[in-house]
From TrEMBL:
PANTHER family, sorted: PHOSPHORIBOSYLAMINOIMIDAZOLE CARBOXYLASE (PTHR11609:SF5), PURINE BIOSYNTHESIS PROTEIN 6/7, PUR6/7 (PTHR11609)
Gene from which this protein is expressed: purK
EC primary class: ligase
Pathway: Purine metabolism; IMP biosynthesis via de novo pathway; 5-amino-1-(5-phospho-D-ribosyl)imidazole-4-carboxylate from 5-amino-1-(5-phospho-D-ribosyl)imidazole (N5-CAIR route): step 1/2
InterPro entries tied to this protein: ATP-grasp, ATP-grasp_carboxylate-amine, ATP_grasp_subdomain_1, PreATP-grasp_dom_sf, PurK, PurK_C, PurT/PurK_preATP-grasp, Rudment_hybrid_motif
Record's protein name: N5-carboxyaminoimidazole ribonucleotide synthase
Pfam family for this entry, one: RS_preATP-grasp-like
SUPFAM superfamilies assigned to the protein according to its UniProt record, in alphabetical order: Glutathione synthetase ATP-binding domain-like, PreATP-grasp domain, Rudiment single hybrid motif
Organism (species): Litoreibacter arenae DSM 19593
Residues annotated to bind ATP: 100, 140, 145-151, 175-178, 183, 206, 259-260
Amino acid sequence: GATIGILGGGQLGRMLSVAASRLGFKTCIFEPGGDCPASHVANYHFQASYDDTDALRKFGEAVDVITYEFENIPASALDQLEAICEVRPNRRALTVSQDRLTEKNFLQEVGLKVAPFMAVDTLEDMHKAVAEIGTPSILKTCRLGYDGKGQARLREESDAEQAFASMNGAAAVLEGFVDFSCEISVIGARAADGQVACFDPGENVHRHGILHTTTVPASVPASVRTDAVLIAARILNALDYVGVLGVELFVTPDGLIVNEIAPRVHNSGHWTQNGCVIDQFEQHIRAVAGWPLGDGSRHADVVMENLIGADMDRVADLSADPAVALHLYGKADAKAGRKMGHINRIQPRS
Ligand code: ATP
Ligand code: MG
Ligand code: MG
């Protein structure tokens, strides 16, 4: 059978490996860390850094297609791998979503709404941006931010200098604060032949910048759910995308505003593991392997909850709850803020 190469060895890589193996594929991960969640389930593990050109070449030659579980793959590694083996989703999907500024410009170009934003590279830019966008607002690093890290909130204009200083000179973007009624996300998929399918939008609640729960169905009108799915499809088609994509949206009285996109399987799509016959991980593997997409229609109501840090103390109780499906990542060290697993609490579809 074919071998699927996965860049990154975290929990997303682990769950992609499981899905691939269920379809008869072998998986090979590329991950600098040793004892990582995906290494426990993948068939092969290239443990090397992204500037190890020899390891990258051997990895590229050992696999039939390459995908990834995180978007911050260095450009040089991508250059090298692309020359040896097909990378799915494609380079444009990666480069667009590696940088918040590029991403927002792209989203606007394809006709989607984003929060008001301005690039901030210097303190002078910062003052201009605050004058233009006002407060409340959020300054975010363009690159490498996740789980609300690399962000500073401005309540009033006088917060500008401190917020700017907290970026440590990294390129940033100031965003107007969106007064949303709720947050939803869509997990969309596109096959190599252009077939598109989206999972039902989920409603997301964050705590301290980290996703806490995703609930399906989202408590928004059917028209909003349809809009959300159409937005995801537009992004997938515009990028000639192959694989699964996560789209985070703010629901406002003036319609949906795109917060950000992720060119990979997404935490807010974990509910699909117990709410659909074909989940986001299998859908992604199908797409990158050149298969048709599966049927991702929802057969249950689900609340997905992340297990973070000390939440692991609840596992014994949760394991005795018949309505709960447990998904643990095999991480040894339950540090504060660390995603250790998640649960899907299931009910018959309402
Ligand atoms: P992720 O782990 O999802 O990649 P991230 O670090 O990229 O997180 P964002 O998704 O940009 O961060 O922001 C985290 C959360 O902060 C959002 O889900 C939302 O709740 C809030 N937030 C971000 N930007 C805005 C905004 N412009 N207006 C209002 N709330 C916002
Ligand atoms: Mg993000
Ligand atoms: Mg986000």
